[in-house]
Amino acid sequence: MSKYLDCLRVAIDDKGKLITWILSSIFIGITLSFNLVPNYTYIWVFPLMVIIVFLFLTYLCSAFNDSGSISVNRNNTGDIITGIVTTVMVLLGNIAYWLAYYPGGFNLDALGQWDQAHGYWELDNWHPIITTIIYWGLTRISDTLAFCIFSQILLFSLVFGVFMYNLTKLGISRGLLIVISACVAINPAVCMNNVCLIKDVYFTIGVMWLSVLLAKIYASDGYWIDKWRNIAHIVIASVFVMLTRHNGFLFVFPMFVMLLVNYREKFKRLLFSLIFTVVGLALIVGPVFEIAHVRRHENVLGEIIGIPMGAMVNAYVNDYDNTPEEVKNLLETIAEREIWNKSYRTGEWDSCKWDMDTDIILQETGLKNILRMFFDTAKAYPEAVFQSVRENTRIVWQLVGRIKWAPWVYIESPNEYEIKENHVPVAESIVGKIIKKSYSIELAPFIWEIGIQLTLLSICGALISAAGSSKGHVFLVPVFTYAIGTMLLLSGPNYRYFYYISVIELPFLAILLTDLFKKRETNGKNEI
């Protein structure tokens, strides 16, 4: 008990620890509450659960409170064999899924980008133009969907192998990294996305690329950033991530904030990196897009009203009489009541948002008025708002339950390119069995539930904070800001927005928990 109280006092005195534990407690507490509370009647459980989680985390962290500062093993020699083995493992696993779904997934979005790559549509950035350019380049080599899919899984595997190679320089064992690679290689939540022609694959590759650079900075106590070529490296990687997804800034900017906070002795160079990143991105989406006649994504800001609009529609459809008149008027200027009742499904904002131009709604109504109407609706019919928010954010908080967001690998048909399914029966049979097993009660939480993954990362964040290390949060905070921000922006059951977490979760845990349980002496200021 005395050790627990000492830990609590330290947390209160140490603002960094206190903030980390409070944020971890809020996230885990809300996650648990959403899983336990079916309706608004039990809303009081939420603050109670946050307090219980805070007390539990304090107890858990008391075991590490006397650990002192964590230091990593700055070892210049990496294990190239591990890098090669893990690359081959992940590539073979992805090839199995590719053959099972040969030539790969080709949805309506991919068809639009394919048309642009072949010169049939004007270039636009609705779906990131950088991936369209990549498809254009690949189709100049071989104008087939199969080649494009193989190229992206090859690149994914190579970057993953480089990531594993760099983790060996942190002293993480070959055996552990091979186990992690095996988990990624057969994981249907990863591979079913990798074999689709979607921007999220290149976003995931970009995040892995940034993770390699974060590992280099972490291992060198920031000295890696001393070289200008390394600044250029992190700038290019950051711009790439933000170009591959419009919400990529939710990962990149928090990453820079955490770097600036935790490596203050490198503040100027990190600030230069951030400034160059912003300027580089602005130049591309500004003058470069203008010169290339790329039409911009016109509905980016409109995405921010997803949760408020979803809640108002939910009240409108399920309790019309109690819905505020102003809300009724707004929704009925968009579509007739019959259309709302027919198209809207609770928890699936996508079921109706494409029937409206949310950017125009935002401009004409104003964000302030939309939020005011949202809160008016919450007062008039709190149950409808609670259910809407709960279901629209389920993909991030669910720990156990029916999986509603497994990827659907298919080919948009008909298409003028005569792209057709040609699955390889043996691979399809093997992969089918793996996928079926992944839905089992013992495996599904660890394969498909992002809530489990984020909860484990959140607990890890509290533990490393207790052990006196805040630098490990450069890995964790960007993941949470992206997950929570994307959950609020692109609400609904779509796993591909988040599947990169299934790729980097285990490597991040390996980095931080290895240092937590096996503290090492510093070997100097060597660069990886």
UniProtKB/TrEMBL annotation:
The lineage of its organism: Bacteria, Bacillati, Bacillota, Clostridia, Lachnospirales. The chain crosses the membrane at residues 18-36, 42-60, 80-100, 145-165, 171-189, 201-219, 231-258, 270-289, 446-467, 474-491, 497-517. This is Glycosyltransferase RgtA/B/C/D-like domain-containing protein. The keyword Chloroplast does not apply. It holds the Pfam family DUF6020. The keyword ATP-binding does not apply. It comes from the Bacteria. Keywords: Membrane, Transmembrane, Transmembrane helix.
